[in-house]
Structures are given as C-alpha cells and as structure tokens.
Amino acid sequence: MRHVVVISTGGTIASRWQGDGYAAEAAGREVLEAGAVPQDVEVRVVDLFTVNSSRLTTDHQLRLLHAVHDALADPEVDGVVVTHGTDTLEESAFFVDLFHGDRRPVVFTGAQQPLDAADGDAAGNLYDALLTAVSGRDIGAVIVFAGQVFAARGTVKRHTVNARAFGDPDGPPLGRVEFGRVSWGRRQPRRAPLPLPERGSATPRVDIVMHHSDADSVLFDAAVSAGARGIVLVGTGAGNANPEIADAVRRAVAGGVRVAVSTRVAAGAVAPLYTGGGAVDLAAAGALLTGTLKPGQARIAVLAALLATGDAASADVELRRLLDTAPKTAPASELYLVDGVGH
Ligand code: ASP
C-alpha cells in the first residue's frame, strides 16, 4: 500500500454554484469522493482551508508550507497532493518548491470546472495527481493538470477557462499521465532548499508594479512608501522601463528594498540588452533580473528569500542563488524517478 496525504485548500475543484457565482465550499473528503483513488493507494485528507485562490495571503501559503512539512514528517507517507485554486496555484506551488528538500513529491492540482459539473475535470486531475505523488522522486513540487506533469518552477496558468490550463512557456513538461501510468520525459535541476521560516513568521510586503507606455514612477514609489521590502518590476520586452523608473529603482535599492525585474511578455528571459531605462540600467541601479520567471513567481522568489533570512544581505545572497539560471544540480546518480503505478 502507498500512502498519500491530500491537503485541501479550496479553489474551483472544491466549488459549487452559490446562486450568483461559484465559490469554494466543499471539504477535502467531498473533493476526493468526486473521483476514484488509484489501486493500492491510501489517502489521508487534511482540510487546511477552503478559499478561492485569488483570496490567498502569504499567511495561507505559510500554513500550507508547514502542513506539507508536517505530512512528510511521517516516514510512511509516499507523497503529498495539494488541491488548490488555479488562479494562484503557480505561486503556492513555487513557494512550497523553494523550501522543499525531500525526495518525496508535492503534487499540486485543481480543476477548471467546478465540483458539481457533470463533465468536470476534477476527478481526472486528482487521480493523475495521486498517481504522480506515488511515482515521482526528486522532482520537488510539481503541477499535474490535464494529463501533464510540470515542474512548479516556470509553470504558469495560460488559459482562463480551458481544461489545459497550465504550461511552461519556456520548456516541455516533466512527464505525462496516460492510461494509469506516469511517463517521465525530462529532469529539471533542483536547487538546495531554503531554510523553513518559523510558524507564524511576520510576512513582508512584496509588491508587483507593471511598466507600460506613459508610465511614471508614482506606483513604484507608492509601493516603497507602503512599506514594501521587495518589489517586482514587470518590464516591457526583455525587462525594460524608462530613466525615471530606473532612478526610482536606485532610490529603493539604496533604501534596502529588494527589486527584481521580470517581464510582461509570455515567454523568454529578461536580459540586459537596452540602456535608456532598459534592463542594463535597472541592473546597474541594483535590481536583480529574474531569468524566465514570470511576475507571480518572481514575486514568490523575493518573498521566500525574505522569509527565509533574517537580514537584507542574506536575503540578497539567497535571492541570487534562487535566480541563478545555471544552478549546481545533484549528481545524476542521486536523481531518480520511479515508474508510475496503478491502473
Ligand atoms: N477562481 C478559482 C480559484 O483560483 C479558479 C480555479 O480554481 O480554477 O480558486
């Protein structure tokens, strides 16, 4: 028998019609009852919270992180599944991934159609997630959706309503789930995990400000005034803004705010190509470029580095390590994936 802990957090996979719209209301056991559990898999359900994921706070994500670590403290547990709203699933999955050093996987899934839809996707996604939870090793946190397994890092919600909701714009999936088996296609390098923050840690404010034509530095400066300890600047193109914003970045960094630059473009990395307020100047002003991380996950990298470290200098060191695009990986012999089980 394989053992999986399912942590239920809400989302459409737990939603029903409320008369004027959908909202999460079902407990984890009800979500599980919507479909089948793979043969030889035993499930324990943890009802952590029941919210639509656009309402999540850092506090929720910290509770989730600790619930995952509590579940994995039991050596009998083979893997963890988290049922989650799709809106911010890529944020929570990446958050958990950055603190994850266990060989056993944490598999995030959800649904695009509510629990009470006759032809919904909840049952299939949950079944595939359970299979993946007992099959993968050394894959960290992953997202299983519509028959595909994606590394949490780099994966984004790509469609508002389509069942194939997730994808990595810069790479293929890790694997597929078909006919009751998980088949693995590639490995993704793993970074050493961040130290786990204390339970009930104070949560730093980290904001996202998007650049656009005619933008000035008012919103960026407002984030600094609101007490942000980190800001993700979502640049145009390969991470560009303008000279006024580059000056605002310099002031913020000098005041101890971590600034990271991502892009509003769907695919590709930010790169120091342009001056005149472009990524060359933003980097010179002290901002860190976030590679191919899209804005939501770039924010999570900044947040996690701040939560994991006590002071600004160590947060900077950790953030640079998290953003390193060519990380040191474990030797190949230490990486393995086991075959899928269950039919
Ligand atoms: N609004 C929902 C949520 O993120 C969407 C979903 O779960 O698919 O909770």
From TrEMBL:
Keywords: Hydrolase. InterPro entries: AsnASE_II, Asp/glu_Ase-like_sf, Asparaginase/glutaminase-like, Asparaginase/glutaminase_AS1, Asparaginase/glutaminase_AS2, Asparaginase_C, L-asparaginase_C, L-asparaginase_N. SUPFAM superfamilies: Glutaminase/Asparaginase. Gene3D superfamilies: 3.40.50.40, L-asparaginase, N-terminal domain. One of its GO terms (biological process) is asparagine metabolic process. Residues 205-312 form the Asparaginase/glutaminase C-terminal domain. GO terms for molecular function: asparaginase activity. It catalyses: L-asparagine + H2O = L-aspartate + NH4(+). Residues 3-187 form the L-asparaginase N-terminal domain. It comes from the Bacteria. The active site is at 12, 12 (o-isoaspartyl threonine intermediate), 86. Its EC number is 3.5.1.1. Pfam families: Asparaginase, Asparaginase_C. Substrate binds at residues 53, 86-87. It is an enzyme of class 3 (hydrolase). Belongs to the asparaginase 1 family. PANTHER family: 60 KDA LYSOPHOSPHOLIPASE, L-ASPARAGINASE. This is asparaginase. It comes from Actinacidiphila cocklensis. The gene is ansA.
